[in-house]
Amino acid sequence: MNVHSDPLVDDYLRRLDAAASALPTHRREELISEIRDHLQEALRQEPGSDEAAVRNLLERLGPPEEIVSAAQDPAPPGYLVAPYPQTNGSAIASVLLGVLWIGWVGSVLALVFGYRARREIKNSAGSQKGSGLATVGIILGWIGIAILLAAVAAGLALVASSAASPGGTPVPVYSS
Q1: What residues make up the domain containing 149?
Q2: Both 158 and 99 in a single domain?
Q3: pLDDT recorded at residue 87
Q4: Is 43 exposed, middle or buried, given 0-12, 13-18 or 19+ CB atoms closer than 10 A?
């Protein structure tokens, strides 16, 4: 069976080419050629190469992404390669809005961005950092809300006390 005539193999090779796009051109072409040759040889040796046999062969070969990952050049000895986690932008926005308040609208936005940042960081599988910033933004947001509520309560108390006192009415003076 010719490898190029099977749509499953063609699809697999297209996925492999897409996954290998980050590799240098010569390495990508070499990898695809090796896999294509391997598939041709394996299908020639397979008695009755039907669709099930092709699927089994492709499953044994593994996902294209794993093949590309294994084909990438390892790091030079003595160097650790680890992705550097980036600070979540929502966490930074949360802290800034919590500090600035912006007429207490910033406090509400600090809460929104802070909780959103914590959720995004939790779901990022370690690729993002900034949970502490998000927490600080949330705390500052709640402090801003508490100050707003205290100011509103004080304002209402002031209005209530001024309405209860006679204010501008003259007090009668009795003389004997």
Answers
A1: 86-162
A2: yes
A3: 92
A4: middle
